[in-house]
Structure formats: structure tokens, C-alpha cells
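Worked problem 6 (solution included).
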Amino acid sequence: MVQSDRQHKQIALLFIDLDKFKGVNDKLGHEAGDKLLQQFAERLINSIRYGDTACRYGGDEFVIMLPEIDDMEDVAAVTKKICDQLSMPYLVNGAVIEVSASIGTTVYPAGGRNCCELIKHADIAMYLVKTRKNHPH
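Solution. The predicted structure is:
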């Protein structure tokens, strides 16, 4: 954040939740769920730039930090690329699994002045995306 302030660049924070992951664990077991998460994480890492940061936040949630963002069009392009990669079918223990991801975004400094605020706002944005998927109008 200090570096962002010095360079007058924004930082985007993406909060990612794997849709319908509980169903995978329930149907195929936790071992298959773990393998799916590993493949999911690998695709996530391959979808971001060198210098971006991705981490598992917990369960089936991940966080990505995109430094040096010029505008929201950049964030939208990266988010679309990630969604496209993550929504392709997975092969786990011979079973084809189709899942998708819900991604919420926020940008520093407008979306919060510290990590906790940024994660909170990105999580809220992700929840809104997930709600729209489950209840489209």
C-alpha cells in the first residue's frame, strides 16, 4: 500500500469463492475436493501476471492482489480471464467436474485503507455476485 501511494497506482483485491464446492465434497468426498482445490489454485496462478499475488484465504476462498492497476477496465479484463480459466471442466479421479467461481473486487485506496477493510469490501462484492448468479432477475 505504501508503494501504491508512492507510485500513485491503485491495487485491486479480488475475493474468489468456488461455486457449489460443498456439492463436490458431498458427492465425491474430501479427497476429490482437495484435488479440485489444487487444480483450481494452479489455474488461478496461471491466470495472473508475474508480480501479482494469489493465496488461499480459507476453505474454497482465495484472494488475489493486483498491484499497479491503472483503471477498472484492467481489473475487469483480469477478472474475466480468471473466470474463463476457472470455469473450464476439471478432471478429478476420472470424474468430470464443472464448477464456476464468484469474484468480488475492490480497489485500494477507494475500497479501504487497510487489508481488513479491503478484504471485507471484496468479500461483500463477491457475495453480491454469487447472489445474482443464484437469483437472476
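Discussion: The chain has one domain: 2-134.
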